[in-house]
Amino acid sequence: MDLGLKGKKAIVCAASKGLGRACAMSLAREGVDVVITARTAADLERTAAEIRKETGVKVTPVAGDITTDAGRAAALAACPAPDILINNAGGPPRGDFRDWGRDDWIKAIDANMLTPILLIKAVVDGMIERKFGRIVNITSASVKSPIPELGMSNGARAGLTGFVAGTARQIARHNVIINNILPGPFLTDRLRSGFAEAARASNRPVDELVQERMKSNPAGRVGDPAEFGDACAFLCSAKIGFIVGQNLLLDGGAFNSSST
Predict the structure, then answer these.
(1) What letter does residue 149 receive in the DSSP assignment?
(2) What is the pLDDT of residues 31-89, one digit of tens each?
(3) For residues 11 and 88, is the Cβ–Cβ distance under 8 A?
(4) Beta 247-250 vs 133-138: how paired, if at all?
(5) What DSSP line would sit under 82-130, residue for residue?
(6) What is the C-alpha to C-alpha distance for residues 236 and 3, in angstroms, rounded to an integer?
(7) pTM
């Protein structure tokens, strides 16, 4: 299927590795020029080179922290009129809510709720004027099924979900479409670090925990970031204008419900 995206421009946040990188790669394969952001310049440049080599599109790396005013300004300066925005940022740490103070909560809300909202605010009017826009927020399966030790992530991402539910329906008539993707277990550095932490706490081998997790999933595995990227590209398609304000859960069927 031709997604109708050739020649479009995208900003993809936190794209040097993991799910952000996968989204940038999938969009680039569709002919989209991408501005990719991340905090670590070396990782970002390496990813940019890999995307260019495989796809031939224009890739502009912008090193910086997208959760700061300066980081957002740099990304928008590199692509002031994007057709596509992929919001993504690392999640806050695990822990017990009793140990978190106000500063911890503000940092989590800044990264996982306010940053995407501010980026949407910065680009949405231009998209409306041009009669085309696709915004995808990478949130978490915890929006559907909260994870107790990820309380800050649960709260901040649920807040973003509520904001998007209202905003998406206000602007859809202009062919500016916002949706969310809710990842479950994908084989990223964050998942690997979670397994390593659990292995240390339980004094068990990492491989044993990975196999356990895979067996417990209805799909019998964890997700491949590449399939996440392709789902993201589909939600950016010129052909999905009737999919509005939805939460696409990609978790291999782990969340058991007759209504998702």
Answers:
(1) G
(2) 999 999 999 999 999 999 999 999 999 999 999 999 999 999 999 999 999 999 999 99
(3) no
(4) unpaired
(5) -SEEEE--PPPPP--GGG--HHHHHHHHIIIIIHHHHHHHHHHHHHHHH
(6) 8
(7) 0.92
